């Protein structure tokens, strides 16, 4: 058996089956496409389900792949056992109705044993078979030539998941020798037992039966088309070929562990706890690096929660190694280098990956220390059960995932009251729902309203006016039959063209009219039972229950809203095109005068990126793309690639809005019929509103025209102030003014420096000795923070030993600069500590190095108190 690298082994497998007529299928994203049943791609076959279930016919019936996979169901075993990982690669060859048992077994055996390929010693290989699968048993014995002692029947060798395709499997094990017997009981020391000696390296599933409820396995019918699904774990194979005691002792992990050693100063294989921490960090950084590269971002839900949990878990174990600062992000390039041969896109996306990881690390480190200390106090208080309330406080206040709390508690042999924790979580969710309900329902979610369940039909997709009958009215939480002029009421009609605020789109406004009656519709929200609840102001006449009215939406308002809503969809598409697929919607507002779009991204957009986004949106507008709206099943919508908002709940039937082939989204809002109706799109601003969330505000149509017009007006006013003619280059002229201003500022600073030097020449004489320590503490006038720093630097050059404290003040704040010479540092006098103390007296804070520090305060009247405190401190030094 020849020693090989992990990259060589991966490529060897692909090359072998390519020679057997297999098409190489690229590794799919860890995020499943059009498969809501999976959170992650968790096996080699998971990415090929579309071929096995018949929903898509592959170009080749023979497929081979190296598929990255992610599983966290047993994350607590990572770093504890030799084989558990959250990220791994599964190498597999597959037959979709082509070859079957004989080819699958003989080719697998050839790959593992031929000296041209892996070259395992045949005597060290054992296989397991399903007891009633005599065909496979005979194949191993009579065709492959294995001794019967190397063929082990095993009841677990049957692959079955509910109804549908299923079948027996056969596994191939490598005997690592007696050195791996450890303390394994003799009854477990075989390929079918729980041990470290016999390592499973290859699994072949013969998908040949159709599982049916109510039938025993021997009654299952044969499938008309049989399939082969094999799997060979790369990490396990590499551990054998590289003679690694565990999967971690290979070139897939050791470079990462070496980087952790360098950062921590600890040595791998020095003690069990250190090894465990390093293995966990190495595993988790591989997982989050690939997951982020594939489009997952840390969050509190779904995939994002998995990523956040793994990062925080890695940070926790890094702290056990003495690593107190963010450092995980520095390991991602090591992962990229290891995997670059087959996954070069990791290196290509490294800057973004590191930014995401670093931001998440630093965010967690801000609160982690306090949470850990509180948790240790709670666990050390002679308790046997950590209360759900305490566990929730750790989660809610300090960002501790409940899984981390459970792991900590296990180290103290303490249980966590998970039932009470979940109750506290549900109470929080209910508070959030209540808060949203009160805001969104205009404070009228009374029992009367909740009990009203008569349906109301929404006609607004087709029309902006309709006849309607008032079927419900409420004032001050009480049912009423009549509302007089000048009063407001909440009403429900049997049908309405008014859009109720939803999905970021604001509500329609308009009027209700009838003979000698008119009311303004001020707002529309969803009632508890789904009807449109209108807030109306009766202006003339009287409104009564069962009254027939003409409901008329403000069409100009509606048109502006629809333009902005479709513009939002186009913006979403453009952002993904420019920034990447990670730029997912995180919130929106669609109003008549503007649109606001929040999205996931970890840095401010450059001016070039904003210009490109704006150009792409306008291009889609000017191409006059037809906007179509279809209703279909959620599965069909995902099959078409419709974008769904993360965290939104969708029913089985959804509404899909498409702008040509460019933008396809699930949406219940109202849109234009053609993108050309939008006219023009202009970005107003781009800002950050939270960790990893950016916000763009923009205008369309008339709003965009008026905004551009205001720019022209502003330019004209600037030219008038500068007395420039229309043909004079404005930017060039402003640059010249700024250059002149800079030159003038330099002259002013030079003059101020001369004045400061004159002041400093006399200040040397004001140094006083306090407890044999040279001290210069005073307030300078007419200088800013920069001037104070210059003064301190010059004084340091003129004095051999010193404690300097300089103050500058305005009406609103104090600037403090402190400096301490090296000889006094050695006596324990620290500039940073002095600055912090003086700043506290002046109502502020600050600090810095032992030799130099800067601080600030809010109360200039306390400067003399601060100077006196410094003298007192120095006098009391021993």
Give a verbal description of the structure.
The protein is an alpha+beta fold and 878 residues long. It is 39% helix and 24% strand. The protein is built from 24 helices and 35 strands. The strands form eight sheets. Strands 1, 2, 3, 4, 5, 6, 7, 8 and 9 form a nine-stranded mixed sheet that branches. Strands 13-16-20-19-18-22 form a six-stranded antiparallel barrel. Helix 6 crosses helix 7 and helix 12 packs across helix 14. The longest helix is centred in the last third of the chain and has 34 residues. The chain is globular and about 100 Å long.
List its salient traits.
878 residues; nine-stranded mixed sheet; alpha+beta; BirA Bifunctional Protein, domain 2; six-stranded antiparallel beta barrel; 6 domains
Structure summarized in a few sentences:
This protein is α+β, with helices and mostly antiparallel strands. It has 24 helices and 35 strands. Residues 432-446 have low confidence and may be disordered.
* Strand fraction: 15-25%
For the termini, the CA-CA separation is: 72 Å
Name the average pLDDT: 88
- What's the architecture of the largest domain in CATH terms? 2-Layer Sandwich
Low-pLDDT sequence parts: 432-446
Biggest beta-sheet profile: 9 strands, mixed
Q: What's the helical proportion of residues?
A: 25-40%
Within CATH, the superfamily of the largest domain carries the name Bira Bifunctional Protein, Domain 2
Structural class comes to: alpha+beta
Based on DSSP secondary structure assignment, what is the total number of beta strands? 35
| Rg, alpha carbons | 36 Å
**CATH class category of the largest domain:** Alpha Beta
* General shape: globular
- Provide a count of the helices: 24
Number of domains in the coordinates?
6
* CATH domain fold name of the largest domain: BirA Bifunctional Protein, domain 2
Catalytic activity: tRNA(Ala) + L-alanine + ATP = L-alanyl-tRNA(Ala) + AMP + diphosphate
GO molecular function, one term: tRNA binding
EC number: 6.1.1.7
Protein name: Alanine--tRNA ligase
């Amino acid at each position: 058996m020849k020693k090989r690298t992990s990259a060589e082994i991966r490529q060897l497998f692909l090359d072998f089956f390519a020679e057997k007529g297999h098409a190489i299928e690229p590794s799919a994203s860890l995020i499943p496409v059009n498969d809501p049943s999976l959170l992650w791609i968790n096996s080699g076959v998971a990415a090929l389900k579309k071929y096995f279930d018949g929903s898509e016919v592959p170009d080749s019936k023979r497929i081979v792949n190296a598929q990255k996979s992610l599983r966290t169901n047993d994350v607590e075993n990572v770093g504890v056992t030799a084989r558990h990982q959250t990220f791994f690669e599964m190498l597999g060859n597959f037959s979709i109705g082509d070859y079957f048992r004989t080819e699958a077994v003989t080719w697998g055996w050839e790959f593992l044993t031929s000296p041209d390929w892996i070259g395992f010693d045949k005597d060290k290989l054992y296989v397991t078979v399903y007891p009633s699968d005599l065909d496979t048993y005979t194949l191993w014995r009579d065709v492959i030539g294995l001794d019967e002692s190397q063929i082990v029947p095993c009841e677990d060798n049957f692959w079955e998941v509910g109804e549908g395709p299923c079948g027996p499997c056969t596994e191939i094990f490598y005997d690592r020798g007696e050195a791996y017997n450890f303390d394994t009981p003799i009854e477990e020391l075989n390929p079918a037992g729980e041990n470290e000696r016999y390592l499973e390296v290859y699994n072949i599933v013969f998908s040949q039966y159709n599982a049916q409820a109510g039938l025993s396995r021997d009654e299952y019918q044969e499938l008309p088309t049989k399939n082969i699904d094999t799997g060979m774990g790369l990490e396990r194979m590499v551990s054998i070929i590289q003679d690694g005691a565990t999967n971690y002792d290979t070139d897939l992990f050791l470079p990462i562990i070496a980087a952790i050693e360098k950062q921590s100063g600890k040595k791998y294989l020095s003690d069990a706890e250190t090894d465990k921490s390093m293995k966990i960090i190495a595993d988790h950084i591989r997982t989050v690096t690939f997951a982020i590269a594939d489009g997952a971002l840390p969050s509190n839900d779904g995939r994002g929660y998995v990523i956040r949990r793994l990062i925080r878990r890695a940070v926790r174990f890094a702290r056990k190694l003495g690593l107190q600062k963010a450092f995980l992000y520095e390991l991602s390039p090591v992962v990229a280098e290891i995997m670059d041969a087959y996954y070069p896109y990791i290196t290509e996306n490294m800057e973004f990956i590191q930014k995401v990881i670093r931001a998440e690390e630093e965010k967690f480190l801000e609160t982690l220390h306090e949470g850990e200390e509180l948790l240790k106090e709670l666990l050390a208080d002679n308790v046997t059960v950590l209360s759900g309330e305490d566990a929730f406080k750790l989660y809610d206040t300090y960002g501790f995932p409940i899984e981390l709390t459970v792991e900590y508690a296990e180290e103290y042999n303490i249980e966590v009251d998970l039932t009470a924790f979940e109750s506290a979580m549900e109470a929080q969710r209910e508070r959030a729902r209540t808060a949203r309900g009160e805001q969104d329902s205009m404070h009228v979610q009374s029992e009367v309203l909740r009990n009203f369940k008569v349906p109301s039909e929404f006609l607004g997709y087709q029309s902006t006016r309709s006849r309607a009958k008032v079927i419900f009215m409420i004032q001050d939480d009480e049912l009423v039959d009549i509302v007089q002029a000048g009063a407001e009421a909440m009403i429900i009609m049997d049908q309405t063209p008014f859009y109720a605020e939803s999905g970021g789109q604001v509500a329609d406004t308009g009027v209700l009219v009838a003979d000698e009656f008119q009311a303004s519709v001020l707002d529309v929200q969803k009632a508890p039972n789904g009807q449109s609840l209108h807030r109306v102001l009766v202006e003339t006449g009287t409104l009564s229950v069962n009254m027939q009215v003409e409901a008329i939406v403000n069409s100009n308002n509606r048109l502006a809203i629809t333009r902005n809503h479709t513009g939002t969809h186009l913006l979403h598409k453009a952002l993904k095109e420019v920034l990447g697929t990670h730029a997912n919607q995180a919130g929106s507002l669609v109003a008549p005068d503007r649109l606001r779009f929040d999205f996931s991204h970890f840095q401010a957009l450059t001016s070039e990126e904003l210009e490109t986004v704006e150009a792409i949106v306008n291009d889609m507008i000017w191409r006059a793309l037809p906007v179509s709206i279809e209703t279909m099943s959620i599965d069909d919508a995902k099959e078409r690639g419709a974008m769904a908002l993360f965290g939104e709940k969708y029913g089985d039937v959804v509404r899909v809005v498409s702008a040509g082939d460019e933008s396809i989204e699930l949406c219940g809002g109202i849109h234009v019929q053609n993108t050309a109706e939008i006219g023009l799109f202009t970005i107003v601003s781009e800002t950050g509103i939270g960790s990893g969330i950016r916000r763009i505000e923009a205008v369309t149509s008339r709003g965009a025209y008026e905004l551009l017009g205001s720019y022209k007006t502003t330019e004209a006013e600037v030219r008038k102030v500068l007395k420039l003619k229309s043909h004079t280059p404005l930017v060039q002229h402003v640059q010249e003014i700024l250059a002149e201003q800079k030159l003038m500022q330099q002259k002013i600073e030079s003059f101020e420096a001369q004045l400061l030097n004159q002041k400093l020449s006399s200040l040397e004489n004001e140094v006083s000795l306090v407890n044999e320590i040279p001290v210069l503490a005073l307030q300078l006038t007419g200088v800013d923070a920069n001037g104070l720093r210059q003064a301190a630097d010059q004084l340091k050059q003129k004095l051999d030993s010193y404690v300097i404290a300089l103050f500058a003040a305005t009406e609103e704040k104090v600037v403090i600069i402190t400096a301490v010479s090296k000889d006094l540092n050695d006596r324990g006098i620290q500039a940073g500590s002095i600055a912090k103390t003086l700043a506290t007296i002046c109502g502020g804070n600050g600090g810095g190095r032992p030799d130099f520090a800067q601080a600030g305060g809010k109360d200039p009247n306390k400067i003399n108190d601060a100077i006196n405190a410094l003298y007192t401190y120095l006098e009391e030094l021993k």
